[in-house]
Amino acid sequence: LDGLPLAIELAAARVTLFAPEALLHRLGDRLNLLTNGSCDLHTRHQTLRGALDWSYQLLDSTEQTLFRRLAIFADGCTTEAAAAVSEIHHPLDQLQSLVDKSLLRAVAGPTGEPRFVMLETIHAYAREQIEVSEDLTALRWHHATWLLELARSQPPRGPDTESWLQTMEAEHANLRAALDWALSVPSTPASRVLGLKLAAAAWEFWQNQHHDDEGRRWLELALERNQISRESQDHHLMAARATALRGVTSLALRAGDQGRAASAAQESLALFRALRNESGIGWGLNDLGALSSSTGDFTQATALHTESLAHFRAVDDAHGAAWALNFLGNLSHFEH
């Protein structure tokens, strides 16, 4: 109960009906459970919802809007995320007000910037207010789209990579919540595609942070929810599938599942070829080369990485070319 005195008092009064273990299981519906305050108390202190209603009504309209919309976050947010998802520009004054009124807490994030989080009880109340006053689907869409932009902001490998990984780790609970919504059953075709794009953009985060099993589960689910026909001309869907399959290839290879790694790599390469995406073709060949190396077929691996290098160089993809040259250097070392 987050240590809230009123919530604890109201819960304590319920022990005449429920043993503590039984009461604990019912706290998922705490706002309807904790309603039996003393009649000697002010009305707003007789129920947990009444106390939160009173605090909420003291907010101005912009603060109420921000408070509701922040409940879409699963584990808090940064100032920038609050602005992006709530569509309230420069919300610092409102965030400060909510902190001062104990409806938010400001805690230090991994980069030193504050993260704004809600106690679980307050979060449950704010989620109720979303359903009363907001378009929940639109809000979820804003949330998932913000995460997609964050995942796609991955910098080239270098000194900024660690900062991006820390930021993604801090938002991991939000990433899970967005994927769960986008890929749930039932869901819309548009949300499923958004989920696929989000999983595809996040696969290197999962790999670098050693969330291999979880990342692979999300990628496989996203691919399952977004099947395409051989005649498909939806290039955005094809590109997202191709990238997600690259993630499956890498994570399956690390897990020793060479069969799945091979099938995913082959499908990914076929999609990149259909899209005439030179860098994508280079990465597909690179992945198949890594798979050949893992099975000891160094001759085949050398041929694949050499072809991969040509595709990268055709579009001046220095990052991809560096990877291909690195593999070729390693293969030369092994062969000699």
List low-confidence stretches.
none
Mean pLDDT: 90
Percent helix? 55-70%
Number of strands: 2
Q: In order across it, which strands form the biggest sheet?
A: 1-2
For the biggest sheet, the summary is: 2 strands, antiparallel
Rough outline: elongated
By DSSP (H or I, 4+ residues per run), the number of helices equals 18
Between the first and last Cα atoms, what is the distance in angstroms? 65 Å
Describe the structure.
The chain has 336 residues and is mainly alpha-helical. The N and C termini lie far apart (65 Å). The radius of gyration is 25 Å and the shape is elongated. Helix 9 (136-152) packs across helix 11. The mean pLDDT is 90. Strands 1-2 form a two-stranded antiparallel sheet. It has helices at residues 5-13, 20-25, 30-33, 48-57, 61-70, 79-86, 92-100, 120-133, 136-152, 161-170, 172-182, 189-208, 212-225, 235-254, 258-275, 278-294, 298-314, 318-335; strands at residues 105-108, 114-117.
Could you write a compact summary of the structure shown?
The chain is mainly alpha-helical. Helix content is 69%, strand content 2%.
Strand and helix map with partners:
Blueprint: H1 5-13, H2 20-25, H3 30-33, H4 48-57, H5 61-70, H6 79-86, H7 92-100, E1 105-108, E2 114-117, H8 120-133, H9 136-152, H10 161-170, H11 172-182, H12 189-208, H13 212-225, H14 235-254, H15 258-275, H16 278-294, H17 298-314, H18 318-335
Antiparallel strand pairs: 1-2
Helix pairs in contact: 5-7, 5-8, 6-9, 9-11, 9-12, 11-12, 12-13, 12-14, 13-14, 14-15, 14-16, 15-16, 16-17, 16-18, 17-18
